[in-house]
Design a protein that fits this description.
Length: about 100
């Protein structure tokens, strides 16, 4: 099997794992705001996705009447990815033994 084919198989498995494990939300923010979020996440030592998930969870915890009850399902953010200049963050990988 070539490296290219192997890479495609790994990507397909990763995408399958992501689709089974996570919900996807497309978030639109004003121009320039994405950079501000990215900088804040970096200062916090976090990925953009984990930073946003934590911020939303914190907001819901402060206002439980408007938020979601997380008492039975704690928020688990995706592992931080390797940095890329593409702006894409948080491409989680399946834990060992999952995803085939």
């Amino acid at each position: 099997m070539s490296k290219k084919t192997s890479g495609r198989n790994a990507t397909a498995k990763q995408n399958e794992y992501i689709s089974k494990t996570y919900d996807r939300i497309n978030l639109l923010v004003p121009k320039g705001y994405k950079d501000r979020i990215k900088e804040a996440a970096e200062r916090a030592g976090s990925s953009v996705n984990a930073y946003i998930v934590r911020a939303v969870d914190d907001a819901m915890q402060r206002d439980p009447e408007r938020g979601v009850d997380h008492s039975s399902t704690p928020v688990r953010s995706a592992p931080a990815p390797a940095h890329s200049d593409s702006g894409v963050t948080d491409v989680p990988t399946p834990p060992r033994g999952e995803g085939g």
